[in-house]
Every structure is written in C-alpha cells, then in structure tokens.
Amino acid sequence: MRRGSWKIRIFIGLAIVAFAFIQRCSNKEENPYTGRVQTINMTADQEIAIGLQTAPEMAQQHGGLYPDERLQNFVDNVGRRLVQNSIARETPYKYDFHLLADDRTINAFALPGGQIFITYALFARLNEAQLAGVLGHEIGHVIGRHSAERIAESSFWKTLSMGASVGADMGNVVAGIGQNTLLSNGRGDELESDELGVVFMIQAGYNPEELIEVMRILAEAAGPNRVPEFQSTHPDPENRIEKIREAIEKYRS
After folding, report:
1. What gap in Å lies between CA 192 and CA 141, rounded to an integer?
2. pTM, 2 dp
3. Which residue ranges does the record assign to the Peptidase M48 domain (predicted)?
4. Which of 2, 191, 237, 247 could disulfide-pair with 195, CB 3.0 to 4.6 Å?
5. End-to-end CA distance of the chain, in Å?
6. Across the strands, what pairs with 97?
C-alpha cells in the first residue's frame, strides 16, 4: 500500500470516529419521566412505530396469543390499572398488554413504545399482585426508553467500529467493547425497571413485596444451573431482591 493511500485511510477513519462521538453528544437528552440523561436518536412516535411493527412477529415466535379472552382481559385490566395510577398515563406511549400462548418459556418483555408481553408459562405461576409487578417492571422499560437507548448505543458502536476498521484492523476490538457496554447497561436497565415497578405497584394499590416473590419464582424456574450474573444481561435475582427492598423502603414511606 502506498504511503499516501495509508494516510488517507487514517484520516477517513478518524473522521468517522469523530463523527460518531459528535453525534453521540448531540443526541443526549434528559428523560422527563426518570430524570436520567440518555443517548437517544429517535422520537417517541418512532418508538411506537417500531413496537407496533415488531409486535406480530414477537407474538408469532411465542405461539401467538393465548386463546382465552377472559384471561387476556384480566391482564389488560391489571395493566391499565398500573398505567392509570402512575406517570405512565402522562407519556405519549400506547400501552398494549399481550398474553402469549407459550406455556414453556417463562418470560415477559416490552417493545419500544408500549407493546408489553407475558408468556402463559410465567402468567400461570403468578397471583394478581405478582402479575402487576411483572407488568409494572415492563412498563418501566418503556418509560425508561431502554430499547431506544440500546438502539442508539448500538448505532454508535457500529459507526465507531467502521471508522476504526477503515483506519486500521481494529474493528473487532471496538465491536467487543461495544458488546460489553451494552451488557453492563442492560443490567442497569433491569434494576431501574424494578424500582419503577415498585413505584407503580404502590401507586396502583398493590403490595410491592410481591415483586420480591416474582424474583424468587424466576430464580426457582432457572434452577441450580442458573447463568452467573457476570455472564448474563440480567442481575442475579438475589441482588435484585436487595435493590427491590431498598426501593420499597424508599417509596412506601
């Protein structure tokens, strides 16, 4: 490779890296519902659109919706009670609660913009207050804009990786750093959503102690071969229980 060509590649690579950092700084904004400063590169309407577009596919992956209108209405009523009695009602998001037919996978998750799912496998293990804890936690993910934040972070690291790979053969190194950052932030998202879930339960008249029982149910379901916390995107249930107790003491008074 000629010397001039090598210099041009370095210059272009540095320019791309600089652009990534400038864009990241310009996308900083304070979440009006949590007060946390985040890197976000999309609007609430875009979050809603992504969630609505992705929801059918996610439902299909879990066997579709559970074919019992009575149970679906029960989930809807608990979800609406949480929204109507919390700051969630002031957000622009459109909250929809879906009971999935999957009776093997114990899981619940939220898409950007308010699409919230719980599998029948998890639902069947919960009482009403525990269901409220799970749904409140997922509402917390929506209000915390965690998916939007992860998308922005992913975009940043991809751009940074491209710039590094143009200037030198370091793309894989930078990509690895990005993955570690996303893993760490993911644990923080879970703890923030646990705290918000406690708040929403209290405001809706549910006993927040039941969220601790949810953590025990998840730990029991995972069994003795549970993935260690440092290898998982979720904090260990025991650590989550400690933080939930702190949140209950903080917001119950």
Report:
1. 8
2. 0.77
3. 72-247
4. 247
5. 69
6. 116
Find residue 19's DSSP bridge partners: none
Rounded to an integer, what distance in angstroms lies between the CA atom of residue 210 and that of residue 130?
A: 5
pLDDT of residue 19 exceeding 50: no
Greatest Cα pair distance, the chain, in angstroms, is 72
Token duo for residue 5: 């060509």
pLDDT band, residue 109 (cuts 50/70/90): very high
Residue 14 CA to residue 160 CA, distance in Å, equals 9
Mark out the alpha helices in 27-124 (DSSP H runs): 44-61, 69-84, 120-123
pLDDT greater than 60 at residue 168: no
Q: Letter for the amino acid at 35?
A: G
Whether 34 shows a pLDDT value over 70: the answer reads: yes
> Residue 165: pLDDT band by 50, 70, 90 thresholds?
low
What is the pairing mode between strands 115-119 and 37-39?
unpaired
Structure tokens at 48: 């809603």
What stretches of 204-236 show up as alpha helix (H) in DSSP?
209-222
Q: How many CA atoms lie within 13 A of 200 on its CB side?
A: 34
